[in-house]
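Appendix B: complex inputs.
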Amino acid sequence: MDALLQHLVNGLVLGGTYALLGIGLTLIFGLMNLVNFAHGEFYTLGAYTTFAALTLGGSNFFLAVAAAIVVGAAAGALCERLLLAPLRDESIDTTMLVMIGLWIALQNAELLGWGGVAKSIPHPFPTAPLTLGPIGIAPLRLFVVLTAAALIVLSWLLIQRTRLGRAMRATFQDRETAALMGVRIGRIHTATFAFGSALAAAAGALLGPIFLAYPSMGDLASLKAFSVVILGGLGNLAGATAGGILLGIAEELGAGYVSSGYRDAVGFVIIILVLLFRPAGLFARAERIG
Amino acid sequence: MHKRWLTTLLLAFTLGALLAPAGFAQSPVKIGVIQPLSGAVAASGNYVRMGAEIARDWINAKGGINGRKVELVIEDNKSDPKEAASAAEKLIVRDKVPAIMGAWGSSMTLAAMPKLEEYGVPMVVETSSAGNITKSGNPWIFRISPPSEMEALGLEKYVDKLGVKHADFLAVNTDWGRGAAGAFGTMLRKKGVEVDAPEFMDQAATDMNAQITKIKASGGDTLFVTTAVEQITLILKQGQEQRLTRKIITTGGSSSPSQLIKQAGAAAEGTYHIVFFMPWFPEAMPDGKLAKAFVDEWTKRGHPFEGLTEGFRGHDGIATIVEALKLAGKDDPKAVRDALWKVSFTGVNGPIKFDKDGPAGKESGQSKPSIFVVQIKDGKVALPDFMARK
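Resulting structure:
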């Protein structure tokens, strides 16, 4: 029983971080219809920026996380302007290939710049766990989950409640009409990609200190992010959040009670089942026709 | 005009190529190296490469092999078995190397092995521990690292002193991890230790909380961990977060205790590590002078100290191949293979000499390396009390 509670808490914490990865991608993949294989590289960028700000810049931890988010947004905006803006009318396959190229280029650049040895990112939290009865949770993880939750709520508010958010939704629903209504399409594309990338960088900055920073860390992150987006339904923020938490808990319980060797398989079995029975995602409303 | 110029150039090249083998008898001897230089276990692979380069430079400084310089052709297997197989093929077919050292991980080594047999080129295995590498009847394999069974037997005499009564295993889900969990489990059961079903993790996994929670519930007193240093760091940190209070022993020699002290801090305190090189006390190694010289050279080159427990493998692997090349007298793969059976010298780890292992008629070579146990105490690496100094 104690172990079950601990597994659920672990799963929730892990799922919160998956959700953060997922909402960034669901904006880019779901709204912009862009298969962003480089999403994980913005995650890596976030972790390394935090590391650089802390060890080279000597900044404080929270400022370093903020710096990572800013750098992530700037890199995303730059990448959209340079690589994606000229291809706006191309097919989804063309942009996908461009993103695969970017993924490989960025990962090798990181390897060249930082070397293959994993970096440990220092953080100011005590390592002794906070305990509640039989359950323990590290203060850093608690901070990560709460920050992730705050970022998810902020993103939701931005998309649902602001002019910018409305313009985003309009643009990706019907570009021509949005343009006729005076929405500056180019800027909206850049802003959305930058926003999604900033969320990935935030995830990297937050998870870097829990795990380690190394050049290939983005691969696993990308994989999980795509899983979460598919689980939750394309472009569905609430779905991505719930999908992330569900995936975290499923993996944790799968490892705890089925077999730890097949931990990652548990997540993918769920995705196959979802694709078979609810192809629009677990949380999709009834399909809108036309 | 343009065309004639090109023809002349082509002719010159062709002539040059034809004359080269006869004209330059002093061409370098090539040795192939396959290591994970990128990907999940890149750190370890790069340390092995650095050690291999030290061996190369030492040999060349002493005049090379019968006056010929040694050249390393280094390939990256990207921590991926598929890449290891294609790297082996490239080294053999394109670079025509007479011998290879590789390929760090057991899964990578196993993937490269069929290529060795297909083309008939020997490989000195410097790190991999899975038992089936030397048991599967590949007569081109010569291993200087201990298989998990040998490592388990090396630990056997310390089991009582370590106070192991009830053991759990957390191992990477590869040939190495599965092999180690099996071998150590068998040895411990024979000693009357209670052993639980092993837990596994993916090579790229970063969150091991589920496994740790499960192990916590087992009520054991010792946790054996088999994986590379990156995952050991995460396990120690996550174990500390979950208050996992238990003796931890890492196997496989790839734990790099110095790196653990740096990256896991207090979480590494009290842990035991099986290592095959003790750079903290080089004088306690079988050839103290060589070990000391290696540590000094490594430091002089500015390589990180924590890499030494991997780096020596590269040195010993290349030194083994060079010994064989000297005995063979020519860089022909088959002659090098035959010469490897006659190699007998002392490397940084200790004496290297191959015994036959595997099915009769198709035996692989297996050396009997020295095995040591160290402990992290007060943020430093120390010899445990039971391992009295010589």
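Chain B touches chain A at residues 37-40, 42-43, 45-46, 173, 199-202, 204-207, 209-211, 213-214, 216-217, 230, 233-234, 237, 240-243, 262-267, 304 (CB under 8 Å).
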